[in-house]
Amino acid sequence: MPHDLTSLDHLDQEQLWDARAAASYDTPGTGMEAPDVLGPTVDRLADLAGDGRVLELAVGTGRVGIPLARRGISVTGIEISRHMIARLREKVSDADLPVVQGDMASTRVPGEFSLVYLVYNTIGNLLTQDAQVECFRNAAAHLRPGGRFVIELWVPQLQQGAPGVPALVGAVEDGYLLVDTLDTATQRLMSHHVRFGEGRSATVGRSPHRYVWPSELDLMARLAGMALESRDADWRGAPFTSESGSHVSVYRTASDV
What sequence ranges are listed for the domain Methyltransferase (predicted)? Predict the structure, then answer.
């Protein structure tokens, strides 16, 4: 396994999501916060929440939680990085969106919720299968009977890599290059984010992840007492097929009725 797949393992998530990461995370009006990306996300989550309380795991700087709360929905967040929480607090108060600092796989928030959600590939930040299973169990423990857990995640595109080639190009954009080095035996990868500046200057950021297959997520849900209710290719409800590069999966707990 290439050395750099494990070189960041000693860092915890709060160290990875430090002040510099928090300061550069928001992209108002573009990228993850472009209206055509954020709008359908918030619309779908609001519909799934109904009139119940909502919990966002890894709420970050409030990209999704804040617009959802502004629709009158009661949103609470769990976030491990104090730097991300501080950035969120620049935008909304604790009364508008309370946040508990802690690990999304183990931190508990009082009360029951109709919806728990985890967006934008974030379950991959948990680097072992055991931790990801515990995340499902933690989500289920927060849900009322009949409540839903929603995960947005990319589908591993390993067929794009030739045998013996240990890296995949994830994105090529103006001023940005993403290269993932991976180990298929452990389902671990290291994302290398290269951002180009003036002239020959460039900065490189790296983050470790564990990729998860949709069927593996379904088994994790069963272990936590949930079942798959629906799977779409995106937040607008496009059909999920073998060609889909990502999915939005909705799991549901058993109802008392």
Answer: 54-147
